[in-house]
Amino acid sequence: GGGAAASAPEVQHNASDAQVNGDAVIWLTNINVDTAMLRFREFLRGFRAPREEDDEVDEDDDEEEGFYISQLRRAFAAGVGSVNINAEHLGTWADTADFYEQLERFPQEMVPVMDHVVNEEYEALFGAEALANSPRLQVRVFNLKDVSPMRQLNPEHIDTLIAVKGMVVRTSPTMPDLKQALFRCCVCSYEDEVLIDRGRINEPVQCESCSTRNCMELVHNRCMFTDKQLVRIQEAPEEMPEGETPATCTVFAFDDLVDAVRPGDRVEVTGVYRAVGKRSNPKQRVLGSVYSTYIDAIHFQKDGHHDDAEMIGEEDDGATTEEDDAMAVERADGGSNDGDWRGAEG
């Protein structure tokens, strides 16, 4: 989008400055991975809950233990696969003020860093066996400083972390989303596993065993899939200008966020705002100049829920139309996937 392109020179300038100083950064960002991991690790170990949140901490917890270390213990006891991180805590913690800004600007790079640190701390607390016997923990960031009005989302918000409020009006059935593909050679039956990378599966051009070209076929029943759901949200009636049609936004939920909300719920969605080109012909890869936008959800917070407990949704009654399901499949093919930026390690 235009906003993203406008900010690129500044980002490159910051990256060049960092490299001159001897610190390697991620391309087109000002993120030093080692520094980001160190700051977030210190935050996890050192942050203490404010006095008004003391009621959320068990009385028998060690007073010297960090608030989020206690959250990891709760996740281990409950067997959940995610840990909620309050963005307000990141913004107020002295050493993570810059970390919070980087998280908002570059969530595709920062969220995997946070996932990695959380899993390392989890392994340090409970051992490698605990991590091996459970799915990798995912960070769920919520409670951003600013909530963006739905009808004011612009190209400058693309690929950034945003929060929007609205009412759920429609949800789709659970759909499988490809996470890891298995290809088999038609000549020698050699098998090759390929992880999804930025929403695409790169089919091997040549068999590594017999060197035959263009001989690999996808074995769908040996592939790994994750749960995916389309959620349509609409701006609340009180936020809608008089006489205007309500604005709507498409949200994709993954893993344990599937079925977390149902039609009628008022929610605050935190996620990455994305854009994908529309195909004029579904059978061709040529994309048009008009882009459709959606949000890859990281966290759902129902209206009235301000605690750090994981939200558990009930089975919903609503369903999308066939046109919505077709649109969801098309967008999935076009690059909408949570695993392209946070699930590749697992």
UniProtKB/TrEMBL annotation:
Biased composition (Acidic residues): 310-325
Keywords of this entry: ATP-binding, DNA replication, DNA-binding, Helicase, Hydrolase, Nucleotide-binding, Nucleus
Cell compartment(s), UniProt: Nucleus
Residues covered by region (Disordered): 305-325
Key word Transport present: no
Pfam families registered for this protein in UniProt: MCM_N, MCM_OB
EC annotation from Swiss-Prot or TrEMBL: 3.6.4.12
UniProt domain MCM N-terminal: residue ranges: 39-143
InterPro entries: MCM, MCM_4, MCM_N, MCM_OB, NA-bd_OB-fold
Biological process terms in GO annotation: DNA strand elongation involved in DNA replication; double-strand break repair via break-induced replication; mitotic DNA replication initiation
Record flagged with keyword Ligase: no
Catalytic activity of the protein: ATP + H2O = ADP + phosphate + H(+)
Quaternary structure and interacting proteins, as annotated: Component of the MCM2-7 complex.
PANTHER family given in the database record: DNA REPLICATION LICENSING FACTOR MCM FAMILY MEMBER, DNA REPLICATION LICENSING FACTOR MCM4
Function per UniProt: Acts as component of the MCM2-7 complex (MCM complex) which is the replicative helicase essential for 'once per cell cycle' DNA replication initiation and elongation in eukaryotic cells. The active ATPase sites in the MCM2-7 ring are formed through the interaction surfaces of two neighboring subunits such that a critical structure of a conserved arginine finger motif is provided in trans relative to the ATP-binding site of the Walker A box of the adjacent subunit. The six ATPase active sites, however, are likely to contribute differentially to the complex helicase activity.
Protein name, entry field: DNA replication licensing factor MCM4
Lineage: Eukaryota, Sar, Stramenopiles, Ochrophyta, Pinguiophyceae
